[in-house]
Amino acid sequence: MYLVTAVVNKANLKNILEDLFANNFEGITVSDVIGKGTFGLKEADNGITDLVDKVKLEMVVSTEANRERAMECVRSNAHDLGRGAGKMWWINVGGVERIRTGERDRDALTTQVDKKIANVAEIVTTQIDTPCS
Length: 133
Prior knowledge:
This protein is of the alpha+beta class. The protein has a single domain, classed as Alpha-Beta Plaits, CATH 3.30.70.120. The protein is 22% helix and 23% strand. The longest helix is centred in the middle third of the chain and has 15 residues. The chain is elongated, with a radius of gyration of 19 Å. It starts with a strand and ends in a 24-residue tail after the last helix.
């Protein structure tokens, strides 16, 4: 399992999320962050640069193939030949546990559709639970 982290421009967030969801990725954490890739360096006019508003996306994926697919979703929507397009990295994850159900690792990363939860007799859907048309 891998934790994929990307820091990108806010303007790219909507397209990245749409691409990730279209590729069946769930469980994405998005945070507002500020930063500068060349922190402490001066621009060409010798002025100190300001920190830039960015977003940080974090997601845990189960396989190397999923890691590459998730990274391609980010890469294809955030790629910019100018400076400041962002950074992306991944690290190995030793384990994951879904707090609510106690599921671990791959099971904790999958969707809840069609899963039977041991301590829930029946899942009831009401008009309150579903969007109206």
